[in-house]
Design goal:
- By secondary structure, this protein is an alpha/beta fold.
- The chain has twelve helices and twelve strands.
- Helix 1 runs antiparallel to helix 12, helix 4 packs parallel to helix 12 and helix 9 packs across helix 10.
- The longest helix is centred in the last third of the chain and has 33 residues.
- It binds flavin mononucleotide and benzoyl-formic acid (173).
Length: 346
């Protein structure tokens, strides 16, 4: 299968339709889901020629973690709905691609088991701060012990997004035999439901900073004023995301938000982004506009549903090859050489 959209079609054929809808869908009228991809199509690339750049090198280092390409695995929930091995298969594929996997707090395999299944994988842990901070701390300790190298704190979810198609399908909970294995304090008998709380504030970010030595990445920042506040609160990186259009509908496309956030951050910390990346050229556009790296959510799920670990490995390899090819055609030796002049709005 030559392209990500082939994996999406294969995943659609294989998944229970309600599960496909859960993975593919978004909030409200899915304005933001569509906008994320459409915004990349509206950006044009303006290559340079005769630069003698040679074959590009794709490696990046983020917060001390090395990745062989600037494409990370975004945190997504419920991988066992797509494949029986679930997050273990995803982690093995990420390790094979030598990239970073951000393990979701809503994973269906415990973070300890994900780490054990993929020795050598670089894992970061995604956290939804729970109002019970003692419980939050227990989960953070589990992630640290499992060897996760950064904490990705998702801040775009003071409440669950409303996804009409899930309501129509009656998709509310995981089937029998699957649970969110990271939602306990070390005693697997004590699994709790995820509590998304509108009471979470900057104070919680400060508490987390004091709680752990792991670098903190703030995921789901879209407003430049919040980017500046995040710097005041000492975060190690920002992660521009609208949750793939699954939280507040009608938020702009993330690639359109990037320039303002990058300007607000002024190079103080790395800026990651996700939303709508389906091609190597999308990666190149986002990085030209100032992203230090990008992440992919649904493409990984499509790989997992279509072909398990091999499917994810293939999706990541495809993106790697496409980024390399796009950089070559832009006349560049590295993603670090990307700059805004390579992108035009059309
Ligand atoms: C099925 C699904 C589950 C997700 N679960 C989580 C999650 O548990 N935590 C989180 O921070 N983001 C979650 N996200 C958002 C992703 O991390 C990411 O922001 C989004 O998928 C990026 O857009 P893309 O799918 O177009 O690449 C989820 C996204 C999808 C599609
Ligand atoms: O579906 C999601 O996008 C998501 O982030 C999530 C969060 C908690 C539990 C399950 C999924």
């Amino acid at each position: 299968m030559p392209a990500i959209r082939d994996f999406e079609a294969a995943a659609r054929d294989r998944l229970d339709p309600a599960h496909y809808d859960y993975f593919a869908g978004g909030a409200g009228d899915e304005v933001t889901v569509k906008a994320n991809e459409a915004a990349f199509a509206r950006l044009a690339l303006l290559p340079r020629v005769l630069r003698g750049a040679g074959s590009p090198r794709l490696g990046v280092t983020l917060l001390g973690s090395r990745a062989a390409m600037p494409v990370l695995v975004a945190p997504t929930a419920f991988h066992r709905l797509a494949d029986p091995e679930g997050e273990k298969a995803t982690a093995r594929a990420a390790a094979a691609a030598e990239t970073i996997m951000i393990v979701s707090m809503a994973a269906t395999v415990a973070v300890e088991d994900v780490a054990a299944a993929a020795p050598g994988a670089t894992l970061w842990f995604q956290l939804y701060v729970q109002p019970d901070m003692a419980f939050t701390e227990a989960v953070v300790r589990r992630a640290e012990k499992a060897g996760c190298a950064a904490l990705v704190v998702t801040v775009d979810s003071p409440a669950r997004g409303r996804r009409d198609q899930d309501v129509r399908n009656g998709f509310e909970d995981l089937p029998e035999g699957m649970r969110c294995e990271n939602l306990h304090d070390g005693d697997p008998e004590s699994v709790r439901p995820i509590d998304m709380s509108p009471a979470i504030s900057w104070e919680h970010v400060d508490l987390l900073r004091r709680m752990t030595r792991l670098p903190i990445v703030l995921k789901g920042v879209t407003h430049p004023a919040d980017a500046r506040l995040a710097l005041d609160h000492g975060v190690s990186a920002l992660y521009v995301s609208n949750h793939g259009g699954r939280q507040l509908d009608t938020v702009p496309a993330t690639v359109d938000l990037l320039p303002e956030i990058v300007a607000a951050v002024g190079g103080a910390v790395p800026v990651l982004m996700d939303g709508g990346i389906r091609r190597g050229t999308d990666v190149v556009k986002a990085m030209a506009l100032g992203a230090s790296a990008v992440a992919v959510g649904r493409p990984v799920i499509w790989g997992l549903a279509a072909g398990g670990e091999c499917g994810v490995a293939r999706v990541l390899e495809l993106l790697r090859d496409e980024v390399e090819h796009a950089l070559t055609l832009c006349g560049l030796a590295s993603p670090h050489d990307l700059e805004p002049g390579l992108v035009r709005r059309c």
